[in-house]
Amino acid sequence: MNEYKLLLLPGDGIGPEVLDATMRVVGWYGQKGLPYKTEEALLGGAAIDATGRPDPDETFVKAIAADAVLMGSVGGPKWDGLPFAQRAERGLLRVRKDMGVYANLRPALCFDALKDASTLKPEIVSGLDILIVRELMGGVYFGEPKETITLPDGQKRAVDTGVYTTSEIERVCRVAFEMARLRGNKVHSAEKSNVMVTGVLWKEVITALHKRDYADVELHHILADNAAMQLVRNPKQFDVLVTDNLFGDVLSDEAAQLTGSIGMLPSASLGDKKENGLPSALYEPIHGSAPDIAGQGLANPIASILSFAMCLRYSFGLKDEASRLEKAVDAVLAEGYRTGDIMQPGMTKVGTTAMTDAILKALDKAA
Ligand code: IPM
Ligand code: MG
After folding, report:
1. What local confidence, expressed as pLDDT, does residue 1 receive?
2. What was the pLDDT predicted at 262?
3. Domains and CATH numbers, the chain
4. 141 an active-site residue?
5. Which runs of consecutive H residues, i.e. helices, occur in 259-338?
6. Ligand 1 pocket at CB < 6 A
């Protein structure tokens, strides 16, 4: 069996710390027989500092050649003043586009031990298990024209363009239906077909796909603004929620808060299967680079570690190993270990290293 090629993109802020923590977990699986080798590349602000660009070409060559990419986080105040095209975030958008990862899976799972950490009432969030499937390569993030021009009267005019084609919509909706079949068998499709033609097309395409290939799955159409409201009103009505790039960005942050902390949530971004049978795959925590706590050993590594659990499941097909890791995290939370972002009275406050130690110990126990 060949070694899996993992590309590490630590990025900025707490990215390197949480990825280091995750690599200790990867190492644990290595000792148990997971064959892998790693490479590292620059992205975001770290790349700007080293090369002058947020997206050095070498990074993309390596990303495309990798079996799975594990990313930390990108961006920070140091690079915020740069012109739009040179901002750290451009590097991340290019990685997604160049790797062809169009389906962004963002689970919002409320661990039982954390049901009191949410700002919502525990009965609303306890047992919550939603999967947001966000389209990641199209829509208003990438549509052309995307420009700011100066008009004859001197004022400026900025344009972003929301574009979707039939095939772009169909491939991500297919992923949503496939995921639903493995879970609660229900898909909500969120768009704004009342005001956007991309929304009209979205609704048409998913309706046709449903009828053709997925009639066994329950499908509901919901306007994206109503979805935002329903997510805080009664989030447990959702199983899989599929939506476009921009709505998915917003709704997944909202869903994250239901679980207590954005520091808890992993993500997987998947594309089509490559020749070797593995999908193009990028794994990253949903949280940002948290510059305020970077470099202090305080960051919650759980989102990044759970992103590796998604890698075990979706890239390597190791479902039992993925569950083992998720259960280890669950156990550690139940024992009362908390990083600052999820700290509650009476619990044990720990930093990145101690949290990771505890997870490794729980893995040992489960092995
Ligand atoms: C996310 C982030 C990114 C996005 C930024 C950092 C470009 O908010 O992954 O949700 O908008 O997609
Ligand atoms: Mg976001």
Report:
1. 59
2. 81
3. 1-109+261-367 (3.40.718.10), 129-258 (3.40.718.10)
4. yes
5. 302-314, 319-334
6. 75, 89, 92, 249
